[in-house]
């Protein structure tokens, strides 16, 4: 019996190698090569694209290509439509990742039920039986009429069934359970995940069927499988949420048809995930406005959000005081504390500093710089900011307060929620009628911001 040949695949970029090495020669990732049986001839060449063989492709001037408007259909869940960029695009492939039990399958089953009356769909499950899927739909109170499901993991048989049923939406739960008969590797391996995803992408583009792929995540928080998987799809959505919180956040990390970092907020209930149309009110509910608290206006995609930033400054018993952050970047906190000491005259070098964004939101933009510093100073001096004050702004290394994008939209959101005072960069100072609904204090240096916060 002939010995089965093996090859090694990089879990980061999908590159193959004939022997194991500590570092991938293509992307430079360390310890990313995994062993798998070699692919049979003929399969690998079809896994890189969906447009057909190279011999049938022709060079076409872009000026002669018809630019038809994207055909979108509303899912019926406003927060999901927002994250998708205004609805589901015909022929698009969306990858949804998140921790186990966070609600990926629940949300997609709800979306399929909402689309069923006007848009036939197919739920392909590789992890549960049809009885389990029907039981979940019943618990969620979803109508079973119009819902079609298939318990199958072989990608060839799935596409054969889909070609006969002709659904307009396919949900594959999950991509790591699918496998191809043309490969010898085990389901979940790099080659199987890559090939199965390529087949679904090609099917979606050729037939105009919209496809949702559910992806497992690794212990580091990334989607399991080769990173090429995220490059193949049109959109990558991540579910986020604290284990003890009923709120879930769906964030777009990649979207070819909408804004990146768009955010949708859901609340988990006994009837599934319910959308939260006004997340600012949820994130601000229960805020104490005590020492160490500052309200900021962040922007996620096209939506301004009001969130509370909390800081706790305490005498440190350690020779190297701790800098701990939740929802913020720890390296940026260290930089901001150095700016506060150098240009604001406030030193916390012998203090432990803890910062947290309430509600489990992760703030990645620089508009959080000024709120973090004001919260730190408020905790250090044990003096609370006014409960009707919001702030935002980027802090530079020389102590200047830099403007951030969409300042007027942020101020409008703050005024809508009853805030009366805003500490903002000079470049974001409101003009016209907006300045009458909220008092805007424009600052240009960190010293001015500290003085305005102490009034």
From TrEMBL:
<feature type="region of interest" description="Lon-protease-like">
    <location>
        <begin position="352"/>
        <end position="455"/>
    </location>
</feature>
<keyword id="KW-0227">DNA damage</keyword>
<dbReference type="InterPro" id="IPR020568">
    <property type="entry name" value="Ribosomal_Su5_D2-typ_SF"/>
</dbReference>
<dbReference type="Pfam" id="PF18073">
    <property type="entry name" value="Zn_ribbon_LapB"/>
</dbReference>
<keyword id="KW-0234">DNA repair</keyword>
<keyword id="KW-0238">DNA-binding</keyword>
<keyword id="KW-0547">Nucleotide-binding</keyword>
<comment type="function">
    <text>Plays a role in repairing double-strand DNA breaks, probably involving stabilizing or processing branched DNA or blocked replication forks.</text>
</comment>
<dbReference type="Pfam" id="PF13541">
    <property type="entry name" value="ChlI"/>
</dbReference>
<dbReference type="Pfam" id="PF13481">
    <property type="entry name" value="AAA_25"/>
</dbReference>
<keyword id="KW-0863">Zinc-finger</keyword>
<keyword id="KW-0346">Stress response</keyword>
<dbReference type="InterPro" id="IPR014721">
    <property type="entry name" value="Ribsml_uS5_D2-typ_fold_subgr"/>
</dbReference>
<feature type="short sequence motif" description="RadA KNRFG motif">
    <location>
        <begin position="254"/>
        <end position="258"/>
    </location>
</feature>
<comment type="similarity">
    <text>Belongs to the RecA family. RadA subfamily.</text>
</comment>
<keyword id="KW-0378">Hydrolase</keyword>
<keyword id="KW-0067">ATP-binding</keyword>
<dbReference type="InterPro" id="IPR027417">
    <property type="entry name" value="P-loop_NTPase"/>
</dbReference>
<dbReference type="InterPro" id="IPR003593">
    <property type="entry name" value="AAA+_ATPase"/>
</dbReference>
<feature type="binding site">
    <location>
        <begin position="98"/>
        <end position="105"/>
    </location>
    <ligand>
        <name>ATP</name>
    </ligand>
</feature>
<dbReference type="InterPro" id="IPR020588">
    <property type="entry name" value="RecA_ATP-bd"/>
</dbReference>
<dbReference type="InterPro" id="IPR004504">
    <property type="entry name" value="DNA_repair_RadA"/>
</dbReference>
<dbReference type="InterPro" id="IPR041166">
    <property type="entry name" value="Rubredoxin_2"/>
</dbReference>
<feature type="domain" description="RecA family profile 1">
    <location>
        <begin position="69"/>
        <end position="217"/>
    </location>
</feature>
<keyword id="KW-0862">Zinc</keyword>
<protein>
    <recommendedName>
        <fullName>DNA repair protein RadA</fullName>
    </recommendedName>
</protein>
<comment type="function">
    <text>DNA-dependent ATPase involved in processing of recombination intermediates, plays a role in repairing DNA breaks. Stimulates the branch migration of RecA-mediated strand transfer reactions, allowing the 3' invading strand to extend heteroduplex DNA faster. Binds ssDNA in the presence of ADP but not other nucleotides, has ATPase activity that is stimulated by ssDNA and various branched DNA structures, but inhibited by SSB. Does not have RecA's homology-searching function.</text>
</comment>
<keyword id="KW-0479">Metal-binding</keyword>
């Amino acid at each position: 019996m002939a010995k089965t040949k093996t090859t090694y695949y990089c879990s980061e970029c999908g590159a193959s190698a004939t022997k194991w090495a500590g570092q991938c020669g293509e992307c430079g990732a360390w310890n990313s090569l995994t062993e798998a049986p070699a692919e049979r001839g003929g399969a690998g060449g079809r896994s890189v694209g969906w447009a057909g063989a190279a011999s049938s492709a022709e060079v076409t001037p872009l000026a002669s290509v018809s630019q038809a408007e994207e055909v979108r259909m509303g899912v019926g869940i406003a927060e999901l439509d927002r994250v998708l960029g205004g609805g589901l695009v015909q022929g698009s492939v969306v990858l949804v990742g998140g921790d186990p039990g966070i609600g990926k399958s629940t949300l997609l089953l709800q979306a399929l039920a909402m689309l069923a009356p006007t848009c036939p769909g197919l739920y392909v499950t590789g992890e549960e039986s049809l009885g389990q899927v029907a039981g979940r739909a019943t618990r969620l109170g979803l109508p079973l009429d119009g819902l079609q499901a298939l318990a199958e993991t072989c990608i060839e048989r799935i596409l054969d069934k889909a070609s006969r049923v002709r659904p307009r939406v396919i949900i594959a739960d999950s991509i790591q359970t699918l496998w191809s008969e043309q490969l010898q590797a085990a389901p979940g391996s790099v080659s199987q995940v890559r090939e199965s995803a390529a087949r679904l992408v090609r099917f979606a583009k050729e037939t105009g069927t919209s496809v949702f792929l559910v992806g497992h995540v690794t212990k580091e928080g990334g989607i399991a499988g080769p990173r090429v998987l995220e490059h193949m799809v049109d959109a990558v959505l991540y579910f986020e949420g604290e284990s003890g919180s009923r709120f879930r956040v769906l964030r777009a990390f990649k979207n070819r048809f909408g804004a990146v970092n768009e955010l949708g907020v859901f609340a988990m209930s006994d009837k599934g995930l319910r959308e939260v149309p006004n997340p600012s009110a949820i994130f601000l509910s229960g805020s104490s406005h005590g020492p160490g608290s500052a309200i900021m206006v962040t922007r996620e995609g096209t939506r301004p959000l009001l969130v509370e930033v909390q800081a706790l400054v305490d005498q440190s018993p350690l020779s190297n005081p701790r800098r701990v952050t939740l929802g913020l970047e720890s390296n940026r906190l260290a930089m901001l504390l150095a700016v506060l000491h150098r240009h604001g005259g406030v030193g916390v070098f012998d203090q432990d500093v803890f910062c947290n964004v309430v509600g489990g939101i992760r703030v990645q933009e620089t508009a959080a710089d000024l709120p973090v510093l004001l919260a730190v100073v408020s905790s250090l001096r044990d003096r609370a900011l006014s409960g009707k004050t919001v702030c935002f702004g980027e802090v530079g290394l020389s102590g200047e307060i830099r403007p951030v994008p969409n300042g007027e939209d942020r101020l409008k959101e703050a005024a809508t929620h009853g805030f009366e005072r805003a500490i903002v960069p000079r470049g974001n100072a409101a003009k016209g009628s907006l300045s009458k609904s909220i008092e805007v204090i424009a600052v240009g240096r960190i010293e001015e911001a500290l003085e305005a916060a102490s009034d």
